[in-house]
Specification:
single chain, about 325 residues
Length: about 325
């Protein structure tokens, strides 16, 4: 997803290229780009910072025990839903300690944080806060029976810290691609698009390691394919790289492996048109359906920073499990 994907090459422990047999699920194939809007559950502490005061530098939040990744639920007894609520509580305290109710690893606790007066005369806690995010991504599939869709192939995360956002509510909306910034070695490219917030296509109910999921309010695909298993060899991806036009582009599945997070694949873009226009895989293409042997087998997730022609994919089976969709016997 544009603005939120942390594109990096990480070390992977390959456990096995084999997976348990799975039943086929008939799905609508996506590939269209959508706008994504989410609000967080509470306010995320995206980072901690120093406060420069007339007497020197201090770190109020860090000193009080606040950690990056904490979720602020209440400030001085009042429920908070956006960063402005926390800022208002700090200003109202007038330099007195602010009692923050936070959630950390599913556990709630209360911490008193005494604001520091900055050199500009503003009371501050020394925290970077995040209460929502927006961007674009790609639909992977939709279950024609339940209307449940899957997109992105990875979680929505804070762009600075990489922390997975605790989503309270969100929506997907109509979007189109206006231009492309091609990828290059060491510099991830991106799709530049605009979203029509007035044309909502569905809700966002889940934000997981395998993608985002929710209810589609209308059809989010034009053809049906059965789900299948990842294997090495030729394949295609379905993506939108201009306007609302969805195209299918050739790739090669180089390796299939399993780790603690499920089954994944390493892929290489071989399509001349896609390589010319984008350099390979760019931000905004996350969630592009991966089709192999006439079946929907996965979705694009990340790109190699050092080589944009290569990237990763997640299996469709793991996306279906994360969505809670029961697979049917073929």
């Amino acid at each position: 997803m544009k603005k939120t994907i942390i594109t990096a090459l990480w070390s992977l422990v390959i456990v096995s290229c084999l997976s348990a047999p799975a039943f086929a699920q008939e799905l609508l194939v996506g590939g269209q780009v959508v706008g994504i809007q989410v609000s967080t559950k509470g306010v995320l502490v995206a980072g901690l910072s120093e406060v420069e005061t007339a007497d020197g530098v201090c770190t109020p939040a860090k000193s009080a025990g606040i950690r990056q990744g904490d979720i602020i639920i209440k400030a001085d007894g009042k429920t908070v839903s956006k960063a402005a609520d926390v800022i208002a509580a700090v200003e109202a305290a007038g330099g007195q300690p602010v009692k923050l109710c936070i959630e950390r690893e599913s556990k709630k606790m209360e911490l008193d944080v005494r604001p520091a007066c900055s050199a500009e005369g503003q009371w501050m806690l020394g925290m970077w806060l995040r209460d929502g995010i927006s961007g674009i991504g790609t639909i992977t599939f939709q279950d024609p029976e339940s209307g449940v869709y899957g997109a992105l192939g990875h979680s929505i995360s804070d762009s600075e810290s990489g922390i997975q956002l605790p989503v309270s509510q969100g929506s997907i909306c109509d979007a189109q691609i206006l231009s492309i910034k091609p990828g290059a070695s060491g510099t991830p490219g991106e799709l530049n698009g605009c979203a029509d917030l007035g044309k909502v296509l569905g809700s966002i109910a889940l934000n997981t390691d395998c993608g985002i999921f929710g209810e589609g309010y209308s059809s989010l695909g034009t053809r049906k394919l059965e789900s299948g298993q990842l294997s090495t060899g030729p394949a295609t991806i379905v993506s939108t790289i201009g306007g609302r036009y969805t195209g299918e582009y050739a790739v090669e599945v180089n390796r299939v492996y399993r780790d603690s997070n499920g089954q994944h694949a390493m892929i290489s873009v071989t399509d001349p048109e896609l390589l010319e226009k984008t350099g390979g895989i760019v931000q905004g293409m996350s969630g592009s359906p991966l089709i192999q042997n006439g079946k929907l087998v996965g979705a694009v997730t990340h790109v190699f920073v050092s080589d944009p022609s290569k990237g990763y994919a997640v299996s469709i089976d793991d996306m279906l499990k994360a969505a809670g969709i029961q697979e049917k016997a073929a």
